[in-house]
């Protein structure tokens, strides 16, 4: 990403409440079982392993961060640990700026350090993290989408209907693992199940050729699909631009493509209507907030999602979404993918929305048991 990203809000690496305070930096590993194995393009994931970071100052203020590396999106677990060790050394000899510089380009490690700093700082300011990030008004709820897995047409219909009955106004279908014709039928079943009032999106995860994507988008337009994420491989920037120009009202969102190309190249190619912001992959909620402000200036919609994280990072993503004005439905309803968690989840999911914690900082408690 470019160093010239505009944005708003405060920098979490600037301990303005007490610049001379001594910060104690600790981190520890964790491993969380998934509720069921997750198939990705690279491997089958059964656990999410990472590191929990704790920052404390001499006055008793505490901030938490989480680094949960994901293959294909971030550095490896070993590189993440090494980066956190460098950050720990930097805190002992320098301060927050030195610690963030020490993690270098290890994005999951930077996410943890910057989130812990932001949690600490917003706690010092006695304000929720989202207001510290965005300097905006109070936000009670942010819309979230239900994720519909790659089931049969009948299973897709049932899942979409159940999501609608639970109050979700947006459903995102995983597509691309079956034939285009099969996915079109699945989308048709979902549309029949939820009617015209529920937004339907599709996420192809780079699965299609240009011809397959063109065929799918034509059918999806007739079915009222609002958006398709990453229909082509990340490198196919011009292909996405061509699809967007001929999409008949179906928006194109880039996910992997954002990380590969950056905002400038996407804007120059006119390749996307929306971009997907994964704070863990971007290097922190602060970075993601600046990218969100940047893309909104050029009429590109930011959508926040997680990388199947623990409660600390997941709650950070909710605060990030709350710091973005008029944010659309985001991919934040991922707690159910975990069989266990780091602590109590402060975010209530209710009628298709995440209720934003209003306590100071992240609002996460009970994650660092001695």
TrEMBL record:
Q: Which residues bind Mg(2+)?
A: 203, 229, 255
- Cited PROSITE patterns: MR_MLE_2
Where is region (Disordered) located? 1-21
Q: What class of enzyme is it?
A: lyase
Give one GO molecular function term: magnesium ion binding
Q: Which cofactor does it need?
A: a divalent metal cation
Active-site annotation: 174 (proton donor), 278 (proton acceptor)
Protein's pathway: Quinol/quinone metabolism; 1,4-dihydroxy-2-naphthoate biosynthesis; 1,4-dihydroxy-2-naphthoate from chorismate: step 4/7; Quinol/quinone metabolism; menaquinone biosynthesis
The alphabetized UniProt keywords are: Lyase, Magnesium, Menaquinone biosynthesis, Metal-binding
UniProt-listed InterPro entries: Enolase-like_C_sf, Enolase-like_N, Enolase_C-like, Mandel_Rmase/mucon_lact_enz_CS, Mandelate_racemase_C, OSB_synthase_MenC1, OSBS_N
CDD domains membership: OSBS (cd03320)
GO terms in the biological process aspect are: amino acid catabolic process; menaquinone biosynthetic process
Catalytic activity, EC: 4.2.1.113
Task: Give residue ranges for domain Mandelate racemase/muconate lactonizing enzyme C-terminal.
Answer: 153-250
Q: What reactions does this protein catalyze? A: (1R,6R)-6-hydroxy-2-succinyl-cyclohexa-2,4-diene-1-carboxylate = 2-succinylbenzoate + H2O
* The family this protein is said to belong to: Belongs to the mandelate racemase/muconate lactonizing enzyme family. MenC type 1 subfamily.
Q: What does this protein do, in the record's words?
A: Converts 2-succinyl-6-hydroxy-2,4-cyclohexadiene-1-carboxylate (SHCHC) to 2-succinylbenzoate (OSB).
* Protein known as: o-succinylbenzoate synthase
Q: Which organism is it from?
A: Halopiger aswanensis
């Amino acid at each position: 990403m470019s160093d010239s990203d505009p944005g708003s809000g405060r920098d979490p690496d600037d301990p303005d409440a007490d610049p001379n305070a001594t910060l104690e930096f600790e981190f520890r590993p964790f491993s969380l079982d998934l509720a069921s194995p997750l198939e990705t393009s690279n491997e089958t994931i059964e656990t999410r392993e990472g590191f929990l970071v704790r920052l404390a100052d001499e006055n008793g203020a505490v901030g938490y961060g989480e680094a949960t590396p994901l293959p294909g999106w971030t550095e490896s677990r070993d590189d993440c640990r090494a980066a956190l060790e460098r950050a720990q050394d930097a805190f002992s000899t320098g301060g927050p700026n030195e610690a963030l510089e020490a993690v270098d380009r290890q994005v999951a490690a930077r996410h943890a350090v910057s989130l812990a700093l932001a949690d600490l700082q917003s706690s010092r300011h006695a304000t929720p993290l989202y207001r510290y990030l965005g300097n905006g008004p109070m936000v009670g709820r942010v819309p979230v989408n239900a994720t519909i897995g790659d089931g049969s047409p009948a299973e897709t219909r049932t899942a979409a209907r159940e999501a609608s009955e639970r109050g979700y106004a947006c459903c995102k279908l995983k597509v691309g693992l079956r034939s285009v014709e099969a996915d079109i039928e699945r989308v048709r079943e979902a549309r029949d199940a939820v009617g015209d009032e529920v937004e339907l999106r599709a996420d192809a995860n780079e699965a299609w050729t240009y011809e397959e994507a063109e065929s799918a988008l034509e059918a999806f337009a007739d079915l009222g699909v609002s958006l398709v994420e990453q229909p082509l491989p990340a490198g196919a920037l011009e292909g996405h631009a061509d699809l967007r120009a001929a999409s008949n009202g179906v928006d194109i969102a880039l996910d992997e493509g954002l990380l590969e190309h950056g905002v400038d190249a996407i804007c120059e190619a006119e390749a996307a209507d929306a971009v997907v912001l994964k704070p863990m992959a971007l290097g922190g909620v602060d970075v993601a907030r600046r990218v969100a402000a940047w893309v909104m200036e050029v009429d590109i919609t930011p959508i926040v999602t997680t990388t199947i994280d623990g409660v600390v990072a997941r709650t950070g993503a909710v605060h990030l979404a709350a710091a973005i004005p008029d944010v659309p439905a985001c991919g934040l309803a991922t707690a159910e993918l975990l069989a266990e968690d780091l602590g109590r989840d402060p975010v209530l999911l209710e009628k298709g929305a995440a209720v934003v914690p209003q306590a100071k900082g992240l609002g996460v408690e009970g994650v660092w048991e001695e």
